[in-house]
Write a structure and sequence with these properties.
two-stranded antiparallel ribbon; 5 helices; 6 strands; 125 residues; 50% helix
Length: 125
Amino acid sequence: MVTFKHKGDFKKTTRFFGLVIRREYLKDLDKFGRAGVAALSAATPVDSGKTADAWNYEIRNSGGSISIYWTNSNINDGVPIAVILQYGHGTRNGGYVQGRDYINPAIRPIFDNIADSAWKELIKE
């Protein structure tokens, strides 16, 4: 036999679903999107500055989930420059330029802030 005992009310749950219905979380996602752009721009290796200035973000809502996508529009001859800076690339004369992991360290604090913010919202009185 399974027995459930309940003590208290559903005040937090009701408040949370009210926020979801009113889409209050979109303001936070916009804030995190802008913060991610700033962090990525600051961390991007600078030669001409084109790649650092080309960061942007999109908030996509599809299939019941919402995602933030950070994008970089600096593409040269079909090659996304932000990607080859991150992972490295071959050169015309057969050499190789080692990549530098600048994206993950820059965006990690943003992910942590998103998780912290979501948790605080869930447990808020």
